[in-house]
Design goal:
Elements (H helix, E strand, L loop, with lengths): L4 H24 L4 H26 L8 E3 L5 E4 L4 E7 L2 E7 L2 E2 L6 E3 L1 H6 L8 H11 L4 H12 L5 H19 L13 E12 L23 E12 L6 H10 L10 E9 L1 E3 L2 E3 L1 H16 L6 E6 L3 H10 L4 E4 L1 H12 L8 H15 L3 H14 L4 H16 L6 H7 L6 H15 L8 H15 L3 H17 L13
Parallel strand pairs: 7-12, 12-13
Antiparallel strand pairs: 1-2, 2-5, 3-4, 5-6, 7-8, 8-9, 10-11
């Protein structure tokens, strides 16, 4: 190291004395507490940098003699020149100089004893800085994440480095998701619920060679095409028996029923279609495979009654036939209500009381198990009311939607059994997981970047972030240095 531990400690003592003097002066000058707080933070960061330097200095220069044994068992020779690497911490960037071992200068370095001793990460950023940066990045743009960290710590990494870090960590998040701890059985509900939906992500246009003559601007041209992110959720929940009138009352008031049970250990995930070595992996299939694995973890032997809640998208139900044959498929009641409103507006003005009564009456019939009566009545009205062509077409779409999904609309049975009939969890996941981050103003994505963000944001929203960071560190440390799974934990407390 360029600086010895003794010199670093001496500098730290000087900085600590400066902090003591600062507090004494602040008291004498009757500063506001927030002014003192800000001044202390700045000084404490400088003090932390000195103490971290002292810690690293105490580890030495990594000299293990002329030769040492590498992790793979090979005997490696100490190179003549010391090598330096940057270490970007929450206290600023430090330079760590140490001996390295290998065949000869210019060849691949086989062993760096000091790096292993300190448990340094593979990249320049400390695990702590990496953790904090990505906590910001899963909630705001990469540029805003960099700015937030600079405002707090005075450290400002480049946007590109945060983006690269995001992708690297996302690779680990995909593996972590299938290995995280299983919730205790006592905290699970009676029913298993699987639900899925899709949300478009605006993609960045691929770079193309500029034409010889620029085409005329097209005011109607789209700024970017969307690619579908397939979003799913798995949770358990207790039964909740209701009547048709209770459901309608809840929908009209837009209030949550007082006694409604809450989802237990909700797990959300998202997959986009990708191409790997020329082979296409459909995002919907990949998502359903993930949900099946979650089901196996949370309900071994599939002993619980399982519910699948989807809208009327045919592709979802086709995949349901392949993946979830032993589940009860239910058409989301909120989408049913949307189609009923479309039908109502074929006969009554929008936002009218008559339209509301029309939709409510037919919703009640469906909830009471009279789906066939609703379909038959709409078919008769389609021919007897002399509707214009556009409205006849819209009504035909509504009738077709109900006919195609009729087998999943036995709502009287579902309510009597206490099953959920609304996929609000999936729609909420689309909003929280995808829209709130990937659809911020002006954002455009490439597929790999969007998928990486979805993996990390899902991990964060699932409440697994702390466990994920621990897993990510241990995984990398084992790969780099072969360290054991269990590492000692230190704390400043007591």
């Amino acid at each position: 190291m360029i600086i010895t531990q003794e010199r670093a400690f001496l500098k730290a003592h000087e900085q600590f004395q400066i902090l003591l003097d600062f507090v004494a002066r602040a008291s004498a000058e009757q500063q506001r507490v927030d002014q003192t707080e800000r001044g202390l933070l700045s000084g404490l960061l400088e003090l932390g940098g000195s103490l971290l330097t002292a810690f690293i200095a105490a580890a030495g220069d990594g000299d293990r003699g002329e030769t040492t044994t590498a992790p793979d068992g090979s005997l490696q020779r100490r190179l003549a020149e010391q090598h330096s690497r940057p270490y970007r911490s929450i206290f600023g960037t430090l330079s760590i100089t140490r001996y390295v071992y290998g065949t000869r200068e210019g060849q691949r370095i086989a062993c760096v004893p000091l790096d292993a001793h300190l448990g340094l990460p593979e990249g320049e950023f400390s695990y702590v800085l990496e953790d904090w940066l990505q906590r910001f990045a899963v909630k705001e743009s990469f540029a805003e994440a960099a700015q937030s960290l600079e405002e707090l710590l005075g450290v400002k990494p480049s946007v590109r480095s945060i983006e690269d870090m995001n992708r690297t960590m996302a690779d680990v998040a995909a593996n972590f998701s299938d290995q995280r701890p299983t919730p205790p059985a006592t905290e699970e509900g009676e029913l298993v619920v699987l639900t899925a939906d899709g949300k478009g992500v605006v993609m960045r246009r691929p770079a193309v060679a500029a034409p010889r003559q620029a085409p005329k601007a097209d005011a109607k041209a789209k700024t970017g095409k969307k690619q579908m992110a397939c979003v799913g959720a798995f949770y358990t929940i207790d039964r909740f028996v209701r009547t048709a009138d209770q459901v309608i009352d809840e929908l009209q008031r837009k209030l949550r029923a007082k006694d409604r049970p809450r989802p237990c250990h909700k797990h959300v995930w998202a997959e986009m279609t990708c191409v790997v070595e020329g082979e296409t992996y459909n995002g919907r299939v990949t998502l359903f495979d993930h949900l099946v694995q979650e089901w196996a973890r949370r309900d071994p032997g599939q002993r619980k009654t399982a519910i699948c809640l989807f809208d009327g998208e045919r592709a979802l139900w086709d995949a349901w036939d392949l993946f979830f044959e032993h589940t009860i498929g239910i058409l989301d009641i909120f989408h049913v209500l949307e189609y009923l409103w479309d039908a109502a507006h074929c006969f009554h003005p929008e936002n009218s009381r008559a339209a509301a009564d029309f939709a409510t009456d037919r919703l009640r019939m469906m909830l009471e198990g009279k789906v066939g009566y609703v379909i038959g009545g709409l078919r008769q009205m389609q021919t007897k009311h002399g509707l214009p062509a556009a409205k006849r077409k819209k009504l035909a779409t509504v009738i077709g939607y109900f006919e195609n999904n009729r087998t999943h609309m036995r709502y009287d049975e579902y309510l009597a059994a206490g099953y959920p009939i609304g996929s609000g969890v999936a729609e909420g996941a689309c909003r929280h997981l995808v829209k709130d981050r990937l659809e911020q103003t002006g954002m455009r994505w490439v597929r790999d970047g969007a998928q990486a963000m979805l993996y990390l944001r899902a991990t964060y929203l699932n409440g697994d972030w702390e466990e994920f960071i621990t897993y990510r560190i241990r995984t990398e440390q084992r790969r780099l240095y072969g360290t054991p799974d269990q590492e000692p934990q230190f704390s400043m407390a007591g």
